[in-house]
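Researcher: I've been going back and forth with a colleague about how YwaF family protein might be arranged in three dimensions. Neither of us has a model we trust, so I'd like an independent prediction. The organism is Candidatus Coproplasma avicola, in case that matters for your notes. Sequence below.
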Amino acid sequence: MKQIYIRRALGALAAAVLACALALTFTISDYYIFNRITEYGVVFCISQWVKKGALLLIPLAVFYGRRSCADIVKYILPVFVILSCALFGDFFDITKPADTPAQVIYSQVNLFLPKWLNMTLFFAQNAFMLAICALLFVRDGAKIRAKSFIYLLPALLACMPLNFFENFFDINTIPADSFLRFKNFTIWHALAIIILAAFTICGYYFLKNKSGRDRNAWLGAMAVTLLIQYHSKDSVIMGDGYNVYHTVLACVPLFICNIGVYIASLSVFARKKFLYETAFFVHAAGALSVFVYFGKDEMSNYGIFCSYSILFFTLTHALLFALSVLPSALGQYKFKMRDCAAPLVYYFIVIILASVCSALVTSASMTWHTEDGYYLTESELIYPNYAFTQINPLPFEIPPVWTLKIWNYDLNMLYILGLYAVYVALFFAFTGAYYAFLAVRAKWLARRIYAGQSAAQGEAAATDERDDENDENE
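Model: Here is an independent structure prediction for YwaF family protein. You can compare it with whatever you and your colleague have in mind.
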């Protein structure tokens, strides 16, 4: 009975830690410090990094029963939680300078969490973490296995703040045409595709011989990592910006791959048929398509190969693709063509919502102004472009021959319907390619089995002949 209460308390505290962590990502300070380590203190930044790693280790220790993760949390986390409480300095006073009237308006949108709430969430999360550590001692005792700590470094790497590398360069000093800049059809583009393929293939071979329990835990770890890294964008976008986006409105999960993060992760946690089929049919193809073509270079700003924007994009989309296809590849779910109806309806609803919300945000930005009456100019208006419903990523334009006005914005309905049709075609093309791969693989395996059987039969016949010869000689 005591263990039941402990498990329930751990579950509630873990949920509270994750809820606080999610809310804190909507503050500039949460990730702003990691590419300014010398400014905010090495020890404090490391303590915050370890706490990011704990967001992965705690769910694995509490919900998946991983003793190795519990050992790390019990003995490592308390030190860094205490350090973060003692060394925060001016962490809660971080704001982004507003040098232009447009930036003043953007700040009004972004800075919606007051300082007192930021501090409350920060210290509440620390308190919840310490309570979890104490309960893990009660649940598991003080006994520890040294081999548990081999998982500490992988956890820290998985949850690494991806803007960390920006400590070592100033993007403003790198020319726009530099070899280091990420563009379509460059060596960096090819490397991103290789990473996607290698990550998925290695994940399959790593997991295929695992037990069901271990496989679920590893897939769960991938899903939690994806959610942690995905929500790092909430903070970065308000501080230094992500790609071409600079307001928190770009964090609304109405991009196809953004909502796919939740669908693919939930499919791993809940293991429900609809989630599996939607992740596989819609979001695997969506994640793959953006690796083939990243959109027009002039509408993107990924920085250089180790900038936050391209590292975030590559890692989150590689994880999304892997989580969308691995359950089917590992035999946990088998997609059938008749399962495509519900995902098609789901995607249609997403496109409609994305179109309407994009129009509403842009219309609203036309009404925003500073206290002295400055309104955003045409180039400064916010175009969230949810699910690519406002800006065509392809190098040609669709004429606005049929439009629908929503508030102050005209939606190009011909483009939106065409967008839906193109993506549906991509979904079916991906599924067809998947079935073709399975057919080829089945034939190859059948030939291997046949060749093995033939070789075995030939060896048996040769053995029989030798036995007959030995009998005759006798």
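Researcher: What would you highlight for our discussion?
Model: I'd start with this: Residues 1-161 form one domain. After that, consider the following. The longest helix spans residues 413-473.
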